[in-house]
């Protein structure tokens, strides 16, 4: 995948295969535009297809993780700046344009995050509102700094959580809590988010990068084929019947059980030694 600075974010790749995507416009609380979202989608597609990438971390700079869409930047035409993908003509100036823009850009970003089979972590350094909040909810893990705050609160402007946030919240909290959260326009602290099940861990702000990195390294050292199969199976199970879920994981098991990682995992147990996973990835990187 390409590393460096792009519209609205920086990308770096650390060993062993940890991609850090850092939102880099703190003066705008890392607000998003359609151009930033499209470049993020392209970056994530590259990460999915690059064997050098095992885990992806999203985080922000300054006081915000991402405080939603940057309406001022939209008005100033920042989407026309050179980026990973070419600019689009204006599209939110009518109903069908708004529908298409949501489906093909804003919602697509969260769909890609949920579809990618490599583990994703949101390291919430500050406020995460609407766009930033739904992006974090789409990740597999969320670690929040103690002073982070998050929510949707779109009804304050008579708007909707239109990037899939309502679905993600129902998955994380259930129907009743989601109704209370959205209808009452709640923006919660990190500790409140932990109690609601919206984040997996809360740490002091100066320990956030370390905590996210430690989790990423733990995941990156695990058996990548089995982990990616399991991630997809867990998400599929949320939508399938029990019979369908059993059949789905049986098909994946037919692949995983015969992979070199599984063979060495069993052998290492007998030989009382640590397993040697991901030799196929190391060989791929060595040959590349």
So what's the CATH class of the largest domain? Alpha Beta
Number of domains: 2
**Spatial order of the strands in the main sheet?**
1-2-3-4-6-8-11
How many helices? The count is 12
Distance between the termini: 13 Å
How would you briefly describe this protein structure?
By secondary structure, this protein is of the alpha/beta class.
Report on this structure.
With about 290 residues, the protein is α/β, with parallel strands linked by helices. It has 2 domains: about 220 residues, Alpha-Beta Complex (2-enoyl-CoA Hydratase, Chain A, domain 1); about 60 residues, Lyase 2-enoyl-coa Hydratase, Chain  A, domain 2 (Orthogonal Bundle). It contains 12 helices and 11 strands. The strands form 2 sheets. A 7-stranded mixed β-sheet has the order 1-2-3-4-6-8-11, sandwiched between helices. A 4-stranded mixed β-sheet has the order 5-7-9-10. A hairpin with a 3-residue loop joins β2 and β3. α3 runs parallel beside α4 and α4 crosses α5. It is globular and about 60 Å long. It starts with a strand and ends with a helix. The model has no long low-confidence stretch (mean pLDDT about 90).
């Amino acid at each position: 995948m390409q590393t460096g600075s792009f519209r609205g974010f920086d990308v770096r790749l650390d060993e062993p295969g940890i991609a850090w995507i850092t939102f880099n416009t703190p003066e705008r609380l890392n607000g998003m535009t359609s151009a930033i979202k499209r470049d993020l989608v392209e970056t994530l597609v590259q990460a999915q297809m690059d064997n050098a990438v095992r885990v992806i971390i999203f985080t922000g700079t300054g006081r915000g993780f991402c405080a939603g869409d940057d309406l001022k930047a939209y008005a100033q035409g920042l989407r026309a700046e050179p980026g990973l993908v070419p600019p689009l003509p204006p599209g939110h100036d009518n109903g069908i344009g708004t529908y298409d823009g949501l489906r093909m850009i804003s919602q697509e970003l969260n769909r890609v995050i949920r579809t990618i089979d490599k583990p994703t972590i949101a390291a919430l350094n500050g406020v995460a509102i609407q766009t930033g909040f739904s992006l974090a909810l789409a990740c597999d893990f969320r670690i929040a700094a103690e002073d982070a705050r998050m929510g949707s609160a779109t009804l304050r402007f008579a708007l909707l959580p239109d990037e899939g946030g309502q679905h993600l919240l129902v998955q994380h909290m259930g129907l009743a809590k989601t109704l209370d959260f959205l209808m009452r326009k709640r923006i919660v602290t990190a500790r409140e988010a932990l109690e609601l099940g919206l984040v997996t861990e809360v740490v002091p702000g100066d320990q956030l990068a370390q905590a996210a990195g430690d989790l990423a390294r733990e995941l990156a050292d695990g058996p990548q084929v089995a982990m990616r199969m399991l991630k997809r199976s867990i998400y599929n199970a949320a939508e399938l019947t029990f019979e369908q879920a059993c059949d789905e994981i049986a098909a994946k098991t037919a692949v995983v059980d015969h992979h070199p990682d599984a063979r060495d995992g069993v052998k290492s147990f007998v030989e009382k030694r640590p397993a040697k996973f991901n030799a196929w990835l190391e060989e791929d990187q060595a040959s590349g």
